[in-house]
Amino acid sequence: MNFKIYFTLKFFFNLSFSLSLLGLTACQQISNDTIPEEGITKKTIRLGSVLALEGQQEIVGNRIKYGLKAAFDDQLVQTKKLELIIENDYYEPGVAYQKTQELIESGIFLMIGNLGTPTAQKTLPILNKNNIPAVGFVTGSELLRSQSELIINYRPSYAQEIETVVKMALYAGVKSSEICAYVQDDSLGLGGLKAVRKALAQAQVEEKILDTYDQVLQYKKKGNKDNILLSPVGFYPRNTPYVEEGYNSLKKWEKNTEINCRLVITAGTTTNIGRFIKFAQDEGENWVISSLSSGSLEELQLSLEEYGITDKVIITTVVPSLDSDLPIVQEAKSKLKNEFDHISLEGYIVGKMTLKILQTIPGKINRDNFLKQAAISKFDLGGVAIDLTQGRIQSSDLVVVKIFTPQGFKKLNKEKLRDMFK
User: Which strands, in side-by-side order, build the sheet including 179-184?
Assistant: First the structure.
C-alpha cells in the first residue's frame, strides 16, 4: 500500500476513534464549534476588546477593562447577557492585528474600547473588511474620525484637545512660534502634529509657522528620507522610555532660531511624557508641557509627585471631573471603587453608551440594526450628553483642561494659564 494513503487512513481512523470515546461524531464536533452568527448566541452577545494589559500602557489598558466590565455587569439585552472577551496586545500593532483576527474568527458582534492609535491603524482595516463596528476606541486620532458608519466614537478628537490648549496659550500671550511639540514617532505622534498644525491654522498664524509642520509631516511621510530637518518638534521611539534625543531636537531648534519654546505639546504614553517632563525640568527648562487624554492622569500625577515636579504641567481630559455629582460619575464610582479614575470612567461611559444603544433596538439584534439605532441616538447618560445624530462622528465634545499643582491636577481657567506663562 502507498505509504501516504496508509498514514492518511490511519490518521482518520484514530480521529474517529478518539471522537467516539467522547461520544461525538466528526459532524457533531464541527457543529459544536460553529462560529456564532455576528457574535450572537441564544444566550449571549459577544463583544471583543484588544487592550494593552501589560507593557508601557498597561495601567491605561487595565483601567479601560475595569470600566467596560463594570458597565456590562449583570446587564441584559433582550434576555441575552453581554460577554466581553478581552485580549492583550502589549500596545504593539502586530499583536493587536493577530488578536483582532482571532476574535473575529471566534465570532464577535463588535469591537469596543480598544486602546491606541498605532494599534487602531492596524486593526481598523480588518474590522471594516468583516463589517464589524468599532465602538468607543480610546484614541482621539483622525483615523477614527472618518464618516464610516462602522466607527462610533465617544470621545472628542485629539485635534479638539490640542486646539483648546493652543487657544488658551495664545490668549495667555504665547506667540505661535513659541509653541513646540514632543511626540511618539508613529501614527499617534504624527496625528498629534497634524492636530497642532490644524489648531495653529485655525488661529490664523503666519504661513511660515505652518510650513515648518508641513515639512516635518512630509519628511515623515517619505520615511525620514532626505536631510534631517530643523523643526520645533522632538520625537521619541514608540513604546520606549527614551527622552533625550527628542529633548535635544527642541534645544537645537531653540539655539538655531533663537526662539524659546514656551509651550510644548506632547502626544505619547504617560510613562514617557512623565520622564520627559522630569528631564526638561532637571535641565532648567521653563517650558509649560501639555499631555493628551490618551494617558492616565492619575499615573502621570504619581510620576510627577515621585519626580518632585510641582508646576508647569497641564493635561486635557474628556470625561467629567471625578468629584462631580453627576449620576453617571457617582454610579461609576460606586461600582469601580478602588479602580475608579478618569480612564476607567471613560471605559464605563463607553460601555453604558453601547448598552443603551443595544437596549433601544426595536427589533432583532444584529449589526445593521445596531448601526441604524446608533445613528439616531441622542440621550442623556446620567448627566453626560450623548448625540450621534445628523452624521456626528463622536457623541461628546467635552474637553477639560487641568493644571498640575502641589495638591494634584486642578481645573484650569484662562486667567490661571496667564500666570503659568509669566
Answer: 233-236, 179-184, 263-267, 288-291, 313-317, 400-405, 408-411
Using alpha carbons, select from 134, 132, 79, 156 the residue that is nearest to residue 354: 134
What are the DSSP calls for 87-138, one per residue? Answer: EE-TT-HHHHHHHHHHHHHH--SEEE--B-HHHHHHHHHHHHHTT--EES-B
Distance, CA of 80 to chain centre: 28
Q: CATH assignment of 38-155+323-387, given 2.60.40.3080, 3.40.50.2300, 3.30.70.120, 1.10.287.3510?
A: 3.40.50.2300
Instruction: Report how far residue 168's alpha carbon sits from residue 39's, in angstroms, rounded to the nearest whole number.
Output: 46
DSSP 394: B
- For residues 348-363, one letter each, b for 16 or more C-beta atoms within 10 angstroms of the residue's C-beta and e for the rest, the string is bbbbbbbbebbeebee
- The gap from C-alpha 204 to its chain's centroid, in whole angstroms, comes to 29
* Homologous superfamily in CATH for domain 158-292: Response regulator (3.40.50.2300)
Q: Grid coordinates in use for 387? A: 448625540
pLDDT confidence of residue 154: 97
As a whole number of angstroms, the distance between CA 412 and CA 274 comes to 20
Domain layout of the chain by residue ranges: 38-155+323-387, 158-292
Where is 378: in which H helix or E strand? strand 378-381
CA separation for the pair 149, 130 (Å, rounded): 13
Task: Identify the weakest region by mean pLDDT among 19-33, 168-182, 361-375.
Answer: 19-33
Predicted confidence at residue 13, as pLDDT, reads: 39
- Could you tell me how many residues make up the chain? 422
All residues at 6 or more sequence positions from 16 whose CB lies less than 8 Å from its CB, including other chains: 26
Check residue 20 and give its pLDDT: 37
Nearest to 89 by CA among 67, 57, 59: 57
Let me know if the fold of 38-155+323-387 is the same as that of 158-292.
yes
Going by their DSSP bridges, the two strands 110-112 and 44-51 should be labelled as parallel
Q: Name the pTM for this structure.
A: 0.86
Residues 6+ apart with CB under 8 A from 296: 59, 60, 63, 270, 341, 342, 343
